[in-house]
Each structure stands twice: as structure tokens, then as C-alpha cells.
Amino acid sequence: MTITVLIVDDSKLARIVAAKALTGLQPDWARQEAANADEAMAVLAAGAIDVALVDYNMPGRSGLDLAADIRAMHPGMPIAVITANVQDEVVMRARAIEAAFVIKPLTQEGLRGFISGAALRLRAAG
Description:
By secondary structure, this protein is of the alpha/beta class. It has one domain: Rossmann fold (3-Layer(aba) Sandwich). Helix content is 49%, strand content 19%. The protein has helices at residues 12-25, 37-46, 63-73, 88-96, 108-125, and strands spanning 4-8, 30-34, 51-55, 79-83, 100-103. A 5-stranded parallel sheet has the order 2-1-3-4-5, sandwiched between helices. Helix 1 (12-25) packs across helix 5. The model has no long low-confidence stretch (mean pLDDT 94).
């Protein structure tokens, strides 16, 4: 079973950094990208996505709003909200929708815990 990760960030560079970190941790996982919430919802509607990495600060809808929409559509999907905005309110809102909180700048080490947990969760569900 191929695992597919959706990387959502309005910055192309940030998507490249996230993809590189992800590849370092799970080289066999596939990736899809989206530059905003609307693109992300179209990707989700078009195919099987197993994990979502969502930037918090994007034009239009925020990453938290997108993560909440994804959670409603896919209750068991591992979701991480990625941001440099480390405020208690943001962390609490992410936890309220059962999303992980990963701090930018994104590194392989920073992503490791979330990806390890996602892999375990997907194996258990599969």
C-alpha cells in the first residue's frame, strides 16, 4: 500500500523543504502538493490522501480551518499544522481538531515524531 502525503503551503520553497524532509524519513511515500486550501480540497476530492501537512498561515482560509475541514472528511487521517506562529491559542486549536503541531522552519528532525506516529497509525488501520 502506497502512502500519499498532501503538502499544503502557499510557499513553493516551503513545499520543497517539506518534501525533502519527508523523503528523508519515508522515501517510499508519495506526495501531492497544493498552494492553498481550495487546491488542497480539490486534491483531496480527486484521490486517496493518507496524511496531510498543512501550513497555518496561508492567504484565504487558514491552515487550521483547512485542517478542520479535512478532519471532518477524514476522521482518522494524521494531520499536522505547520507554523512558526507558536502561540498557545494556535496550539490549542490544532489539538482541538486532533491535529499535530509542527514548528517551522521544518526539518527532518522536527517532522520525525509526527511521521513516525502517522506510519504507526496507518499500519494499525491498514
